[in-house]
């Protein structure tokens, strides 16, 4: 087994036996990994982290294979950033939990992407900056979809390829916008304004830091949330627990 040190976000943890834990990490250099941390729940064992969800850590792990799957032994976990400004606000904490669960659900194991790592990190800093949590979520959703190859078509009709159709309809199952002649007659189609499509393209082309001061009208914001919420849900195996909580609290 060879030792590997890297920065990593905690995605999910599970108690294991009396003093240990299993955890999913999203690492900068190796993508999502699954690890066992022995003794971390034993107060006599000194770790520099308590494995808080979405905390940024430096970890040391040893690669090993067991039972046909990858379960790596993590021997060092040192917290670098706990994002306290997020944790002291319930709404921001709820959205950070959503970002974390969405990332854990959509990404495959050990498919490294520094772009995804940097997006997650930048989105947490964005959320901590005082920006609108809902706007932060829409930006994270769209850019994550783009990086993972799920970006919807927003510039041309997915049927006839006519550019910038007017009126335009977003059709979930078709993967993007349709013109009035091509849109299927189904409940999954939604009218979408040019302002919303322009905002989607602007977010797609910009880095997160450049979007800190971006503003949208209430109409575009509501339409954007409706479109992306349904499109993201279409690509998930089921409703995320964090989304259920956001809805119950009236945050989403």
Structural summary, described in words:
This protein has helices at about 85, 90-105, 115-130, 135-145, 195-205, 220-235, 240-250, and strands at about 5-15, 20-25, 30-35, 55-60, 65, 70, 70-80, 170, 175-180, 190. The chain is of the alpha+beta class and about 250 residues long. The protein has 2 domains: about 5-80, OB fold (Dihydrolipoamide Acetyltransferase, E2P); about 85-250, de novo design (two linked rop proteins) (Up-down Bundle). It has a 5-stranded mixed beta barrel with strand order 1-2-3-7-4. Strands 9-8-10 form a 3-stranded antiparallel sheet. It has a two-stranded antiparallel ribbon with strand order 5-6. Strand 8 (about 170) and strand 9 (about 175-180) form a beta hairpin. The mean pLDDT is about 90.
